[in-house]
Specification:
Elements (H helix, E strand, L loop, with lengths): L6 E12 L2 E12 L4 E10 L26 E7 L6 E4 L1 E4 L6 E11 L6 E4 L8 E8 L7 E3 L5 E4 L6 E9 L6 E2 L6 E3 L3 E4 L5 E8 L4 E3 L5 E3 L6 E9 L4 E8 L1
Length: 251
Protein backbone atom coordinates (compact mmCIF):
# COMPACT_ATOMS: atom_id res chain seq x y z
CA UNK A 1 0.00 0.00 0.00
CA UNK A 2 1.34 3.39 -0.96
CA UNK A 3 1.81 5.92 1.80
CA UNK A 4 0.22 9.34 1.82
CA UNK A 5 2.42 12.15 3.03
CA UNK A 6 2.25 15.55 4.61
CA UNK A 7 4.79 17.97 3.31
CA UNK A 8 5.32 21.65 3.99
CA UNK A 9 7.40 23.70 1.56
CA UNK A 10 8.21 27.25 2.57
CA UNK A 11 9.88 29.38 -0.05
CA UNK A 12 12.04 32.34 0.87
CA UNK A 13 12.36 34.63 -2.11
CA UNK A 14 14.99 37.31 -2.56
CA UNK A 15 15.82 39.54 -5.49
CA UNK A 16 19.11 41.34 -4.93
CA UNK A 17 21.92 43.16 -6.68
CA UNK A 18 25.27 41.59 -5.84
CA UNK A 19 28.21 43.66 -7.03
CA UNK A 20 26.01 45.11 -9.74
CA UNK A 21 24.80 41.67 -10.86
CA UNK A 22 21.09 40.86 -10.60
CA UNK A 23 19.77 37.63 -9.14
CA UNK A 24 16.50 36.22 -7.83
CA UNK A 25 16.89 33.18 -5.56
CA UNK A 26 14.22 31.03 -3.92
CA UNK A 27 14.95 28.58 -1.12
CA UNK A 28 12.72 25.64 -0.21
CA UNK A 29 12.39 24.47 3.37
CA UNK A 30 10.63 21.10 3.28
CA UNK A 31 9.07 19.54 6.38
CA UNK A 32 6.49 16.86 7.11
CA UNK A 33 4.21 15.86 9.97
CA UNK A 34 6.81 13.60 11.58
CA UNK A 35 9.16 16.58 11.96
CA UNK A 36 11.52 15.68 9.12
CA UNK A 37 13.13 18.71 7.54
CA UNK A 38 15.06 19.27 4.29
CA UNK A 39 16.58 22.70 3.66
CA UNK A 40 19.05 22.38 0.79
CA UNK A 41 16.99 23.31 -2.30
CA UNK A 42 17.60 26.67 -4.01
CA UNK A 43 16.55 27.77 -7.51
CA UNK A 44 16.46 31.03 -9.44
CA UNK A 45 18.41 33.25 -11.81
CA UNK A 46 21.86 34.80 -11.57
CA UNK A 47 23.67 37.09 -13.99
CA UNK A 48 26.76 34.85 -13.82
CA UNK A 49 24.92 31.56 -14.29
CA UNK A 50 24.47 29.35 -17.34
CA UNK A 51 21.77 26.77 -18.01
CA UNK A 52 24.32 23.99 -17.36
CA UNK A 53 26.08 23.12 -14.08
CA UNK A 54 27.89 26.08 -12.46
CA UNK A 55 30.18 24.83 -9.72
CA UNK A 56 31.17 28.36 -8.70
CA UNK A 57 27.52 29.12 -7.86
CA UNK A 58 27.06 26.01 -5.72
CA UNK A 59 25.52 23.67 -8.28
CA UNK A 60 26.59 20.03 -8.01
CA UNK A 61 27.96 17.81 -10.74
CA UNK A 62 26.09 14.93 -9.21
CA UNK A 63 24.75 13.79 -5.85
CA UNK A 64 25.19 10.53 -3.95
CA UNK A 65 22.41 7.92 -4.21
CA UNK A 66 19.07 8.86 -2.67
CA UNK A 67 18.67 8.06 1.03
CA UNK A 68 16.10 5.44 2.17
CA UNK A 69 12.49 6.13 1.18
CA UNK A 70 11.64 6.85 4.80
CA UNK A 71 13.76 10.02 4.67
CA UNK A 72 12.53 13.35 3.33
CA UNK A 73 14.64 14.36 0.35
CA UNK A 74 14.60 16.37 -2.88
CA UNK A 75 16.80 17.63 -5.71
CA UNK A 76 16.70 19.46 -9.02
CA UNK A 77 17.48 17.81 -12.35
CA UNK A 78 19.67 20.03 -14.54
CA UNK A 79 19.74 19.08 -18.22
CA UNK A 80 22.74 20.17 -20.29
CA UNK A 81 21.21 22.02 -23.31
CA UNK A 82 23.90 20.63 -25.66
CA UNK A 83 24.58 17.05 -24.53
CA UNK A 84 21.15 16.60 -22.85
CA UNK A 85 22.98 14.91 -19.96
CA UNK A 86 21.02 15.14 -16.69
CA UNK A 87 22.63 16.04 -13.40
CA UNK A 88 21.09 16.08 -9.92
CA UNK A 89 21.76 19.13 -7.77
CA UNK A 90 20.42 20.85 -4.67
CA UNK A 91 20.87 24.22 -6.41
CA UNK A 92 19.65 25.23 -9.88
CA UNK A 93 20.48 28.76 -10.99
CA UNK A 94 19.92 29.89 -14.58
CA UNK A 95 21.38 32.77 -16.55
CA UNK A 96 19.64 35.98 -17.56
CA UNK A 97 18.68 36.60 -21.17
CA UNK A 98 18.79 39.89 -23.05
CA UNK A 99 15.04 40.28 -23.15
CA UNK A 100 12.82 42.15 -20.76
CA UNK A 101 11.28 38.85 -19.63
CA UNK A 102 12.36 35.28 -20.26
CA UNK A 103 11.15 31.77 -19.48
CA UNK A 104 12.87 29.22 -17.22
CA UNK A 105 11.63 25.75 -16.34
CA UNK A 106 13.08 23.96 -13.31
CA UNK A 107 12.64 20.21 -12.71
CA UNK A 108 12.14 19.23 -9.07
CA UNK A 109 12.19 15.61 -7.84
CA UNK A 110 10.95 14.86 -4.35
CA UNK A 111 11.08 11.88 -2.00
CA UNK A 112 8.29 12.30 0.51
CA UNK A 113 9.31 10.40 3.63
CA UNK A 114 6.17 9.70 5.75
CA UNK A 115 2.87 11.53 6.27
CA UNK A 116 -0.73 11.95 5.09
CA UNK A 117 -1.10 15.13 3.00
CA UNK A 118 1.07 17.61 1.16
CA UNK A 119 0.93 21.25 2.22
CA UNK A 120 2.97 23.72 0.20
CA UNK A 121 3.61 27.27 1.37
CA UNK A 122 5.85 29.92 -0.13
CA UNK A 123 6.60 33.62 -0.12
CA UNK A 124 5.01 34.86 -3.37
CA UNK A 125 7.03 36.27 -6.23
CA UNK A 126 6.46 39.96 -6.84
CA UNK A 127 5.34 41.47 -10.14
CA UNK A 128 8.64 43.40 -10.20
CA UNK A 129 10.52 40.07 -10.36
CA UNK A 130 8.34 37.98 -12.66
CA UNK A 131 5.50 38.12 -15.15
CA UNK A 132 4.24 34.75 -13.95
CA UNK A 133 5.35 31.76 -11.88
CA UNK A 134 3.72 28.35 -11.45
CA UNK A 135 4.37 25.04 -9.73
CA UNK A 136 2.94 22.22 -11.87
CA UNK A 137 2.95 18.44 -12.01
CA UNK A 138 5.24 17.02 -14.70
CA UNK A 139 2.67 14.80 -16.45
CA UNK A 140 -0.23 17.09 -17.31
CA UNK A 141 1.01 20.44 -15.93
CA UNK A 142 -2.64 21.10 -14.97
CA UNK A 143 -3.57 18.56 -12.27
CA UNK A 144 -1.27 20.62 -10.08
CA UNK A 145 -0.99 24.20 -11.25
CA UNK A 146 -0.29 26.73 -8.52
CA UNK A 147 0.11 30.44 -9.18
CA UNK A 148 3.13 31.51 -7.11
CA UNK A 149 2.36 35.20 -7.63
CA UNK A 150 -1.31 35.24 -6.58
CA UNK A 151 -1.15 32.53 -3.90
CA UNK A 152 1.16 31.65 -1.05
CA UNK A 153 0.00 28.11 -0.23
CA UNK A 154 -1.88 25.03 -1.42
CA UNK A 155 -2.72 21.49 -0.35
CA UNK A 156 -2.02 18.47 -2.58
CA UNK A 157 -3.80 15.24 -1.63
CA UNK A 158 -2.61 13.11 -4.57
CA UNK A 159 0.12 10.88 -3.14
CA UNK A 160 1.18 9.84 -6.66
CA UNK A 161 2.53 13.30 -7.47
CA UNK A 162 6.19 13.55 -6.43
CA UNK A 163 7.77 15.40 -9.35
CA UNK A 164 7.16 19.02 -10.25
CA UNK A 165 8.06 21.73 -12.72
CA UNK A 166 8.63 25.29 -11.58
CA UNK A 167 7.80 27.48 -14.57
CA UNK A 168 8.75 31.13 -14.37
CA UNK A 169 8.71 34.14 -16.70
CA UNK A 170 11.42 36.26 -15.02
CA UNK A 171 11.92 39.95 -15.62
CA UNK A 172 15.38 41.30 -16.48
CA UNK A 173 15.89 44.88 -15.22
CA UNK A 174 19.24 45.12 -17.04
CA UNK A 175 17.88 44.15 -20.45
CA UNK A 176 18.31 46.34 -23.50
CA UNK A 177 15.09 44.82 -24.82
CA UNK A 178 11.78 45.96 -23.42
CA UNK A 179 8.13 45.01 -23.36
CA UNK A 180 6.22 47.50 -25.45
CA UNK A 181 2.48 47.29 -24.85
CA UNK A 182 1.88 50.52 -26.79
CA UNK A 183 3.58 49.58 -30.07
CA UNK A 184 1.26 51.08 -32.67
CA UNK A 185 2.42 48.70 -35.40
CA UNK A 186 0.84 45.72 -33.59
CA UNK A 187 -2.85 46.05 -32.78
CA UNK A 188 -4.44 43.49 -30.47
CA UNK A 189 -8.21 42.98 -30.61
CA UNK A 190 -10.48 40.61 -28.72
CA UNK A 191 -9.78 37.65 -31.01
CA UNK A 192 -7.23 38.90 -33.49
CA UNK A 193 -3.84 40.52 -33.93
CA UNK A 194 -3.23 42.95 -36.78
CA UNK A 195 0.09 44.26 -38.08
CA UNK A 196 -0.16 47.69 -39.71
CA UNK A 197 3.20 47.64 -41.54
CA UNK A 198 4.44 44.09 -42.01
CA UNK A 199 7.49 45.32 -43.95
CA UNK A 200 9.03 46.59 -40.71
CA UNK A 201 9.09 43.11 -39.18
CA UNK A 202 11.55 40.29 -39.88
CA UNK A 203 10.09 37.66 -37.55
CA UNK A 204 7.11 37.29 -35.20
CA UNK A 205 6.50 34.57 -32.62
CA UNK A 206 3.76 34.05 -30.03
CA UNK A 207 4.38 32.12 -26.81
CA UNK A 208 2.00 30.84 -24.16
CA UNK A 209 2.62 31.37 -20.45
CA UNK A 210 4.63 28.11 -20.28
CA UNK A 211 7.13 29.37 -22.86
CA UNK A 212 5.83 27.17 -25.66
CA UNK A 213 5.92 28.78 -29.10
CA UNK A 214 2.38 28.46 -30.46
CA UNK A 215 2.68 30.65 -33.58
CA UNK A 216 5.57 31.70 -35.83
CA UNK A 217 4.02 32.76 -39.13
CA UNK A 218 4.24 36.38 -40.31
CA UNK A 219 0.86 37.64 -41.51
CA UNK A 220 -0.92 40.97 -41.44
CA UNK A 221 -3.92 39.43 -39.64
CA UNK A 222 -3.62 36.64 -37.05
CA UNK A 223 -6.76 34.86 -35.88
CA UNK A 224 -6.62 34.32 -32.10
CA UNK A 225 -10.20 33.13 -31.56
CA UNK A 226 -9.31 29.44 -31.13
CA UNK A 227 -6.78 30.05 -28.36
CA UNK A 228 -7.87 29.46 -24.78
CA UNK A 229 -8.11 32.37 -22.34
CA UNK A 230 -4.85 33.26 -20.60
CA UNK A 231 -1.61 35.22 -20.87
CA UNK A 232 0.47 35.20 -24.06
CA UNK A 233 3.57 37.04 -25.29
CA UNK A 234 4.30 38.32 -28.79
CA UNK A 235 8.00 38.64 -29.62
CA UNK A 236 8.90 40.71 -32.67
CA UNK A 237 12.27 41.02 -34.39
CA UNK A 238 12.21 44.22 -36.44
CA UNK A 239 14.28 44.83 -39.54
CA UNK A 240 16.33 47.45 -37.69
CA UNK A 241 17.50 44.76 -35.24
CA UNK A 242 15.34 45.85 -32.31
CA UNK A 243 13.31 43.29 -30.39
CA UNK A 244 9.94 44.06 -28.87
CA UNK A 245 7.74 41.92 -26.65
CA UNK A 246 4.06 42.55 -26.16
CA UNK A 247 1.94 40.97 -23.45
CA UNK A 248 -1.53 39.69 -24.38
CA UNK A 249 -4.25 38.83 -21.90
CA UNK A 250 -7.09 36.89 -23.57
CA UNK A 251 -10.28 36.93 -21.48
Amino acid sequence: MKKLVSLTLILFLAGIYAYGQYQVKTKFIITNEVDQTFEKLIFGINANATDSVDLSLGENYDLPPNPPQSELYGYFQITNPVSLERTSSFTDLRGLENTSSFYKKFSLRMQRGSGTRMFIKWFPFTTEQVDSAFITDVVTEYVVRIDMVKKDSCIIDNSMINNFFIQVWYKNPNSSVFIDNTDENILVGDNSIRIKDIQKIEKLSIYDINGLEIYSDLKENIDFSNNINGIYFIQVLNNDGSILRKKIIKL
